[in-house]
TrEMBL record:
This is RecA family profile 1 domain-containing protein. Residues 101-308 form the RecA family profile domain. It comes from Cryptococcus amylolentus CBS 6039. GO terms for biological process: meiotic DNA recombinase assembly; reciprocal meiotic recombination. Its main location: nucleus. GO terms for molecular function: ATP binding; ATP-dependent DNA damage sensor activity; crossover junction DNA endonuclease activity; four-way junction DNA binding. The keyword Flavoprotein does not apply. InterPro entries: AAA+_ATPase, HR_Repair_Mediator, P-loop_NTPase, RecA_ATP-bd.
Length: 335
């Protein structure tokens, strides 16, 4: 970080910069109000503090520098009227509306959607309140930025719920494309893409095809239209899982159309008896960091499936064995 003293140039509000609204909100929440507040920060420091990508941080600092007039073309007084006008028009009402209107993903179960909406973000319930009848039931309560964990015993339907959300995301993306991009000749699969990370082999090609066919048969579309926007990654070993976690941020950076990530099942490769507690704790901490970044930085909804396991507890609710245990309960396997 630079040790130079702050410049004597005038300070300007960060809300006037032509940067994404999500970055402006992050700056506001972090307590940064003017260009002078961030002029000595590096892109790496700003990226970490705001939980944004490094490219967004570099762009923000560049815009702040240009706004203060530090470019080689002159200071504030040397800015052309066209440049000034561009800054003024950078945040239009349409931009604000588009960022406020988020896609909603459904489990195709009114009970589950209602439960998620009850404990999820308020924007979900607000958006759903404008719908009536059956349309309200299929609005969905999962939006980009949310992280939902689905825990249950083997055979409890976790993969089926995750697959339903994936198909809902594809439906949402296709509708958005038809409304906004079809007149421009864009393909149906250009938005609302999904990444499925399959560790147990439950997401077979046949299962995906049958599920897609059930969704499209009513409106006479082809399953290919739905499947084309689903990226399926099979992870066979623990080493592959760790490698994927380390590279997921880069993968999402190169696939900006993906707004839903499904991990089925996160606990599969980290429940071996040979894995010591310290290594498992490090793996879980890495998983939490990557999942949080996928939701906050890349604005994806994240669905994480986990197995339940039987935990023995004593009378004081402390871990026990078969000899000292007082009762048994089902808990997430990685807890």
């Amino acid at each position: 970080m630079s040790t130079q003293p702050p410049s004597s140039l005038p300070e300007y509000s960060l809300s006037a910069l032509p940067i994404p609204r999500s970055v402006k909100v992050a700056l506001e929440e972090a307590g940064y109000r003017t260009t002078r507040d961030i002029e000595l920060m590096s892109a790496e420091d700003l990226s970490v503090e705001l939980a944004i990508s490094t490219s967004e941080a570099k762009f923000t600092l560049q815009q702040a520098e240009e706004w203060q007039g530090r470019t080689t073309h002159g200071g504030i007084g040397g800015m052309t009227s066209q440049t000034s006008q561009a800054h003024i028009q950078s945040a239009t009402a349409a931009d604000l509306l588009s960022t406020a209107t988020q896609p909603h993903f459904s489990t195709f179960s009114a009970s589950l959607d209602g439960l998620i909406g009850r404990f999820g973000l308020s924007i979900s319930s607000e958006a759903g309140s404008s719908c009536k009848g059956k349309e309200r039931l299929h609005t969905g309560s999962i939006v980009p930025g949310m992280v939902v964990e689905i825990s249950g015993p083997p055979g409890g339907g976790k993969s089926a719920i995750a697959l339903a959300v994936a198909l809902s995301a594809r439906e949402s993306g296709q509708k958005e494309t038809e409304l906004n991009g079809h007149s421009e000749g864009k393909a149906h699969s250009e938005s609302g893409e999904v990444l499925i990370i399959d560790t147990e082999g439950a997401m077979t090609a046949e299962r995906l095809y049958e599920a897609a066919w059930a969704v499209v048969e009513e409106d006479k579309r082809l399953p290919h239209d739905v499947l084309q926007g689903i990226h399926l990654l099979r992870v066979s070993t623990q080493h592959e899982m760790l490698a994927l976690l380390h590279t997921l941020d880069e993968w999402l950076e190169s696939h900006p159309k993906v707004n839903l990530v499904i991990v089925d099942t996160l606990s599969f490769h980290f429940r071996q008896l040979s894995l010591d507690i310290a290594a498992k704790r490090r793996a879980m901490e890495l998983s939490r960091t990557i999942i949080s970044k996928a939701a906050m930085v890349h604005h994806c909804a994240v669905i994480v499936c986990n197995q339940l396991a039987t935990k023995l507890l004593n009378a004081e609710n402390k871990p026990a064995n078969f000899d000292t245990g007082d009762r048994a309960i089902l808990m997430p396997q990685l807890s």
